[in-house]
Design goal:
The structure holds two protein chains of two kinds.
Chain A (H helix, E strand, L loop, with lengths): L3 E10 L2 E11 L4 E5 L6 H8 L7 E6 L2 E2 L4 H7 E4 L11 H11 L5 H12 L14 H13 L5 E5 L7 H16 L3 E6 L2 H4 L4 E6 L2 E6 L1 H7 L3 E6 L3 H8 L7 E5 L2 E6 L2 H14 L4 E5 L3 H16 L1
Helix pairs in contact in A: 3-4
Chain B lengths: L1 H7 L2 H17 L1 H23 L5 E7 L4 H12 L3 E6 L3 H10 L4 E5 L3 H7 L4 E7 L3 H9 L1 H16 L3 H7 L1 E7 L7 H31 L1 H7 L4 H29 L9 H25 L3 H18 L11 H7 L3 H15 L3 H25 L6
Parallel strand pairs in B: 1-2, 1-3, 4-5
Antiparallel strand pairs in B: 3-4
Helix pairs in contact in B: 2-12, 3-10, 3-12, 4-8, 8-9, 10-12, 10-13, 10-14, 10-16, 12-13, 13-14, 13-16, 13-17, 16-17
Classes of the chains: A alpha/beta, B alpha/beta.
GO molecular function (chain A): ATP binding
Family (chain A): Belongs to the ABC transporter superfamily.
Keywords (chain A): ATP-binding, Nucleotide-binding
């Protein structure tokens, strides 16, 4: 049985369709990355899954509970970490955890709280106001608070936004440790390196789910060809390439240019022309990255909207 | 079935919410200080300002003659310390003008034939016009008038040793209360203040309850955790019942100690009515909280409610002095009913039967507001 199994979810705010027929399944113990640009509907989709929003259309189950009828059961079994820190800044770290423990009726409260504090390494800071914590610590506190009741599914909404690389690394180690223990994780993010740490990814743009699968599958299914251009005066070369048929993306990467296109033949012709026009320029086949794919998706969906 | 009930209400979860609220309340020092400071400040300001029996009120004298009787009465009035004669008007019209401007609170007119009438024993009259736009201010001064004036006259006549007995019986002091013939007695104010203070703090504080969670972004988390609308409502509302209890104690103690307001009724009856009243207020505040989108809006809605309830409840103006439609409108405010209860119990010693109907009204508000609040509460972010 899939932990998340939703079909045809639609959510409209005003006249705007924010989630447009999203179908998604997540199996037990999977870490699924939920990717997409700002405002693409990631948060809305996650909120529907944890019962915070009612979908206008569509149906599905989370942990076997119907997302419309059993939202209270879902809330008890799911750990949801909001995008913005949403614990009480005027409560201490200890008091916040006690509040959560009591609300989930975890007994004895003190055992849960002190264990969580110990695991976080926050035992000595128990009486510190949560509002005085740095971004990284707030995020760790929030994660600790939402796994305290041992949920079977974690929904994390951009948990690593504004967190330094070391804290991010530690965060992901923790996520993998939890998934190893059978916890299922759906995590939304902007970061490509984080996407590559997921078992599977789903890409959403303007409310539509555009791709899903492992990172390799998504890259391969995108059907993009990438060439690496090297040589002098790459700025000029980039200008020359821009807008030619077959050339979809030109992006400088250090001392090279990544040139990406979906029509391989047209792209090769464009590059051959440019190679002739500019002396000392060499073109070699390159590897398409996940980022290239996403940029392509974003450009494509913008066209759809217009 | 048991599981179904557990989903709707659990004491453990309510306990979690209550503890959280109390901690936040304690930590928010300014708000906490306000909740205790507001009743004291209001009580002292309002109480003394309205309630104190003001002395040395500016008075204009219109004396047509300067005889010994006139002088005796004027000095006797001055001796009461209520009247301060700082204007001598040449004519009634000038005195009228002074009062219209608010320069004087009283105009004392002693007619030209006053001395002659005293000597003849021909029922002499003096006229006192009081500016009763602030009736409480004038009432003390007026109440001393009759005796003071006749005694003064008596003394003046004693010196003359003529027709003293007749004059004593015959002096007539005519009092005209101007602008507002219906006076509010002082004791009306402090029991009324109990209701007003409770209304102000209770409604405003609870009106912020949900909007504060929404503005701080904690609402999303609260909704994502297992807590039912009933639990959230009670968790928000019950702590303020405790605050309200403290306020009631402060106001009642001050009423007794600072203002010497008589308390003739049953304390139990009053406190039970206060409980129902406060419950209706916090639920009203919570209802506002489910409507407002921000704390600012909650504040505005509170004041929108606050002003008419002050004006129409009978706190500021006599309820019976209002036109019929305004009286009907006044009935929709819990304060109106509470004022009747508290004045009846504190001042008239009314028993339960006498105020049962008003308590019934308050109970209706409790049920109504709780129903509206729960119906309006969104357990989702839609």
């Amino acid at each position: 049985m899939n932990v998340i199994d939703v079909r045809g979810l639609v959510k409209r705010f005003g006249g705007k369709t924010v989630v447009d027929h999203v179908t998604m399944t997540v199996g037990e113990g999977e870490i699924v990355g939920f990717l997409g640009p700002n405002g693409s509907g990631k948060t809305t989709t996650i909120r529907i899954m944890c019962g915070l929003l009612t979908p206008d259309e569509g149906e599905g189950t989370v942990l076997g509970f119907d997302i419309r009828a059993d939202s209270l059961r879902i809330k008890r079994e799911v750990g949801y970490m909001t995008q913005k820190f949403s614990f009480y800044e005027d409560l201490t770290i200890g008091e916040n955890l006690e509040f959560v423990a009591r609300l989930y009726q975890l007994k004895p409260v003190e055992d849960y709280v002190s264990r969580t504090l110990r695991e976080l390494g926050l035992s000595t800071r128990r009486n510190q106001l949560a509002g005085t914590l740095s971004g990284g610590w707030k995020q760790r506190l929030a994660l600790a608070a939402c796994i305290m009741h041992k949920p079977k599914l974690l929904l994390l909404d951009e948990p690593t936004a504004g967190v330094d690389p070391k804290a991010r690394r530690e965060f992901w180690d923790e996520i993998h440790r939890l998934a190893g223990g059978g916890l299922t994780v759906l995590i939304s993010t902007h970061y490509m390196d984080e996407a590559e740490r997921c078992h599977r990814i789903s890409y959403i743009s303007y409310g539509k789910l555009l791709a899903t699968g492992t990172v390799d599958e998504v890259v391969e299914n995108a059907g993009l060809t990438t060439f690496v251009v090297q040589g002098p005066r790459l700025g000029r070369v980039a200008e020359a390439l821009e807008g030619r048929p077959g050339v979809d993306q030109v992006a400088p990467f250090g001392a090279t240019l990544h040139v990406v296109g979906s029509d391989k033949a047209a792209l090769e012709k464009a590059l051959a022309d440019v190679e002739k026009e500019h002396k000392g320029v060499t073109v070699t086949p390159g590897e398409t990255s996940l980022e290239d794919v996403f940029i392509q998706f974003m450009a494509g969906s913008k066209d759809n909207m217009a | 079935m048991k599981n179904g009930l557990k989903a709707v209400f659990s004491f453990a979860r309510l306990g979690a919410l209550l503890i959280k609220e109390f901690i936040q309340m304690r930590r928010d020092r300014i708000t906490f200080a306000m909740m205790l400071g507001v009743p004291l400040l209001q009580l002292v300001l309002f109480g003394f300002a309205i309630n104190n029996d003001p002395k040395s009120l500016p008075t204009a004298l219109v004396a047509m003659s300067n005889d010994q009787y006139t002088r005796a009465i004027v000095s006797a009035l001055q001796m009461t310390r209520y009247y301060r004669f700082d204007h001598v008007a040449e004519s009634a019209a000038e005195a009228e003008m002074l009062m219209a401007k608010g320069a004087v609170s009283f105009v004392v007119t002693i007619p030209a034939d006053f001395a002659r009438r005293v000597e003849r024993g021909d029922s002499p009259q003096i006229l006192i016009e009081a500016d009763a736009t602030d009736p409480a201010a004038a009432s003390g001064a007026i109440s001393t008038l009759g005796t003071v004036a006749s005694q003064a006259l008596l003394r003046a006549q004693g010196m003359q040793a003529t027709a003293a007995e007749t004059a004593k019986q015959q002096l007539r002091v005519v009092v005209h209360q101007r602008y507002n013939p219906e006076g509010i007695s002082q004791y009306n104010i402090v029991p009324g203040l109990l209701g007003v203070i409770l209304q102000m703090t209770m409604v405003m504080m609870t009106a912020m309850a949900l909007t504060r969670e929404t503005e701080r972004g904690t609402m999303e988390n609260l909704l994502a955790m297992p807590s039912s609308p009933t639990e959230i409502m009670l968790g928000k509302v019950l702590p303020f019942l405790v605050v309200g209890a403290v306020q009631v104690a402060v106001v009642l103690a001050a009423a007794k100690l600072l203002f010497g307001v008589p308390f003739v009724g049953s304390l139990t009856l009053l406190l039970s009515s206060v409980l129902v009243f406060v419950l209706s207020l916090v639920l009203l505040g919570y209802t506002i909280s489910t409507m407002a989108r921000s704390q600012m809006q909650a504040m505005q809605l509170t004041f929108f409610f606050f002003l008419p309830s002050l004006l129409l409840s009978g706190f500021m103006f006599p309820y019976r002095g209002m036109p019929g439609w305004a009286q009907i409108l006044g009935e929709i405010f819990p304060l109106t009913h509470f004022l009747r209860i508290t004045r009846a119990v504190m001042l008239k010693g009314a028993n339960f039967n006498a105020v049962a109907a008003e308590i019934g009204w308050l109970s209706v508000f409790v049920v109504l507001f709780a129903g509206v609040a729960l119906a309006r509460f969104r357990r989702t972010l839609d």
